[in-house]
Here is the input.
Amino acid sequence: MKNFILSAFLLTFLTGCMEVNEFGWDEFHPPVVTHTLIFQSEYTNHAWGYSHNGWMMDGKGLVKRFQKSATWVFPDSLGYVSETDMKKNLSVCDSLLEHVSSGEFFHYSSKALTCVDGPMTNPKMTMADAGEHIYAFYRYEADRKRYKRVILSMIGDWSQENLAPNSKEVVDWMKTIK
Here is the structure.
């Protein structure tokens, strides 16, 4: 009986341990996850002054904020970001907003992956001087050590939507993260 109580106490204590690393808060013994998706909500506006902010969610479900003061590496014209540059972007995120459970992360990652080849609507001018809010995720390409951005929704001066069946559900979930 003593061993059971001691084991329960240690299990409770050890599962809550956290440490700080170069990318922010990290679980003491993180699950083994290699190059899963990275979700991103990003707002950019160049009208009336520059604004750039949003959040990124890594493969452990850690949602981290970034702001315009951060040195940022944007995807190239084809939507690619090198692994090194993605690590730089994650490292300049300045605070932890929330932690999404692994089950929830896996659920929406699975849905997001069905959107990779989703057709996009034609870009449509919908506003002026509103900038753009992009909901997207990045998928890792191990052979080239880079990430490919998949846009799910772009709203603002120009609007465009991914028409894959699960896209709207993933975007609606991403909008709940603050």
The chain has two domains: 1-29, 31-175. The helical segments are 2-15, 83-91, 102-113, 167-175. Residues 31-175 form one domain.
